[in-house]
Amino acid sequence: MKLSLWLAVLAVAAAAFPHGAAAQNFTLPSLPYETDAFEPSIDNMTMTFHWTRHTNAFVTNLNSQVLVKCPELNGKSLLELVLAVGAKCNSWNERRGWGKRAARDGCLTIPTECETLVRNNAGGFWNHGLFFLHNLAPAGTQKYSDDASEELQTAIWEAFSDYDTLKANFSAAAAGVFGSGWAWLVTDDDGKLSIVTTPNQDNPLFANAPAKGWPILGLDVWEHAYYLKYYNVRASYIAAFFDVINWKGVSAVYAAAKDGSYGSIDVLKPAANFED
Amino acid sequence: MLRAQASRLARPALLFARDMASATQLNLPDLPYDYGALEPVIIGEIMELHHKKHHQAYVNGANTALEQYQEAQHKGDVSKMIALQPALKFNGGGHLNHSMFWQMLCPPKEYEPPAGALEQAIEAEFGALEALQKQFNAKAAGVQGSGWCWLAFNSEVKNLVIATTANQDPLQPTTGLIPVLGVDVWEHAYYLQYKNVRPDYLKKIWEVVNWKECGRRYQEAIGK
Description:
Number of helices of chain A: 11
Largest sheet of chain B: 3 strands, antiparallel
Number of strands of chain A: 3
GO molecular function (chain A): metal ion binding; superoxide dismutase activity
Oligomer: heterodimer
Signal peptide (chain A): 1-23
EC number (chain A): 1.15.1.1
Domain Manganese/iron superoxide dismutase C-terminal (chain A): 149-251
Strand content of chain A: 5-15%
Distance between the termini of chain B: 58 Å
CATH architecture of the largest domain in chain B: 3-Layer(bab) Sandwich
Largest sheet of chain A: 3 strands, antiparallel
Shape of chain B: elongated
CATH superfamily of the largest domain in chain B: Iron/manganese superoxide dismutase, C-terminal domain
Pfam families (chain A): Sod_Fe_C, Sod_Fe_N
Strand order of the largest sheet of chain B: 2-1-3
């Protein structure tokens, strides 16, 4: 292409992005498995719609609304945005930083006009990234006893005494969410596990989360996550979810959280076990 | 003597029965039309699930919460009474909301536009029905997660407003606004038919709004 044409293109791009940098748009990753591989737990249509319609809507909103209304957020990672929700940054925070946790260094202020947009869309994209790319594995491919790491199994034993109790407690929490939300298995900095729930697209990483923790496993209990197959019977969906958990992926996230490198997990990149 | 003994035993039993009988018992109201009557706007499958499963679950949940509340009340267990309030608001609210909703809808062939005082109020507040629908749908589409969108009467400033509530929060008890029209935007209200495209559901639902019922509610609200 002619140099003059290239310059014109660059000039248009520069005009479109007043801060001189092109918007570093988010993109919807490809799923590392077939969408019909989760029967009978999750049906093909739900897997497809949930990723290509619901999750994609967060991507669209982030790019067309958040990054346009608040261009200073360009280049921030999804995790940075999520950690910043509800953060009250002041010079004390900035001086103190967040200590040993690389993911929390510094303090990002989200402009007021983008607060709700970031909460819903960065939260939503992050949540679904963890869920689809690190927490789900096709039916029949993994078992808790074989595929959850020894480290994770020990932590579960310590917190819940056994897998069945974890399952019962997690299921009760997920069933008890009023309206739309998520149930999470989270760990603290020392590897201690607990179960928390959040409404809508909130998650325990938010700076203002009432119950904080590093999420390692999440379950979407918005109706769109199960309605096509389970109708109103959320409990059946929750029970079936346990048959399609990616324990290898969950173990990897747990290990990163426990050794202080939760920020090294890119929720938008499929779990390493899919590289085999 | 046996009779005297029997009546001594009967009295506390009767009092107990009287107390328990006075516990509020909510019931699932019937729909004023068949499940398929709102087609093609809302398919029969949705109406049946929505009524028989979802609304019924709120009725059951509310009755359980009310029973437990009364028990706690008898014991003077204030802590427990307070702990039950979210379940009461959620399930009781769900029952109130849906009971109204079924009445606020009608088969498409029975549709009539707003009339009388309500029509005038809509024109005064929004200019025209289309303008109301546009504003209403924008707010309804914007409800994050589960909730409702309402056309309501604000009795303090005496005008119509559009308001949204989260989950099953009932409008009047939580805001004081008086419901004239409510639209359920929980995904269960439309997902089987409209999938994730809530705006399409919102466009179509106006074809089954029972403006007579809404008008009646409005009349009652302004009369207060």
